[in-house]
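From the pipeline queue, job 12 of 40. The input is one protein chain; the requested action is below.

Action: predict structure.
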Amino acid sequence: MLMSRFSGLSLLGSICTMSAMWFANLMLVAQPDGYASLGIFNAAERWRQLLLFLPASFSPVILTSLSNLHGRNDPESYRRLFGLNLAVSVGVVVIPSIGIVLWAPFAMGLFGDEYRAGGMTLVILAASSVVVVLNNLLGQVLVSRGAMMGRLVLDVLLAAVLTLASWQLIPLYREQGMALGSLIAFAVTSAALVATTGYFMRAHRSGR
């Protein structure tokens, strides 16, 4: 029953996020040369997904371990594992992101000369990869404690901010506006998660 509820809420959160991304894509292709802009964004997004590959790969294992430690009421081990995962995940994203930022036009040029103009889009998405990782890692605290509804509320917040930011920024900056919208949405959600996670970690420490 619990797993069914978790799956349902997780699916609902994913639908909200995908709907916001669909809206952003629709806004972008509606602009002059919109399909070309979308192609540039998607090329830059490929690099961001590469940056996020390692943290995403071991995320399910970490989530299972955190859930187990919470169930065993072992707050010290819980915090150590969370801290180690946070340090490693951020490290494996930040270090290559710096290289991507420094060589953004070259990295985009690997898709073809017409993509070199998307260097700034790649810089923004590379920067956003850090807050994407934070969003995922901090969200694990909520999920591991069974606070699926809280995770859903923050997914809805992410979708709402992404939709609003895309609506405002894409007509002005096209693919860069779409990248900025993603950065803003994940940054706002991560900030909310910092406050929420801090509460849960303090509660875990006190054994509540």
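Job complete. The chain has a mean pLDDT of 90.
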